[in-house]
Amino acid sequence: GVIIINEQALIEDFNPACERLFGYYSDDVVGKNVKILMPKPYHDEHDGYMENYRSTGVRKIIGIGREVLGRRKDGSTFPMELSVGEARQGGKPVFVGIIRDITERKAAETAIQRSVTELTEFAYSIAHDLKAPLRAMQGFSMALQEDYADSLDEIAEEYLNHIASGATRM
User: Fold this and answer.
1) pLDDT in tens, 126-163
2) DSSP-assigned states of every residue in 2-14
3) For residue 21, how many other CB atoms are within 10 A of its CB?
């Protein structure tokens, strides 16, 4: 979506993509403060950011893309990527916001993180469950080597060494 606001933070243009994203018609929002599209705490802080920019020129978001939450007409929120640029229209500054809904990307990131957590827990569980049998294999192979060294042939000795070294590596 593309939205244009003036230096008083009033919406001047609200394109059809913004209508779909936020659930407002352009006629509902043009002339209103852009903070109606923001949940708390952004809603409460926005006028201060605009005033600070007008008086000091210090930019908080202009020229910097970032992830924020948008607020729809029904009050629900959604994650969005917001990039704001400054332009001139009729000799006056205006701010152009480019908005992209990133709900699907955030859901995918959450699913990936959940999978990573589950895999980590699974790997820990498997490692823990395998330690006892591996120690037993290692211990019994060493016991066989010590207790029956005289009665083992070269091949049996080699097999026991493979079992012990394999258990140690695992």
Assistant:
1) 888 888 888 888 888 888 888 888 888 989 888 888 88
2) EEEEETT-BEEEE
3) 20
Task: Please state the pTM of the whole predicted model.
Answer: 0.66
**Among positive and negative, which fits the CA dihedral 134, 136, 140, 142?**
positive
Between CA 36 and CA 134 the distance in angstroms is 63
Alpha-carbon 37 to chain mean position: 22
Would you state the structure tokens that stand for residue 66, as one six-digit string?
């970032």
Instruction: Give the up-direction half-sphere exposure of residue 159: CA atoms within 13 A in the CB hemisphere.
Output: 8
- Calculate the alpha carbon distances from 122 to 5, 104, 128, 135, 153 in Å: 51, 27, 10, 20, 41
Structure tokens at 115: 């999978």
Strands (DSSP E) found in 22-170: 66-71, 77-89, 92-101
The DSSP secondary-structure symbol of 41 reads T
Residue 81 and residue 52 in contact, taking contact as beta carbons nearer than 8 Å = no
User: Which residue in 56, 57, 49 sits closest to 33, CA to CA?
Assistant: 49
**DSSP label at 33?**
B
d(CA 43, CA 150): 84
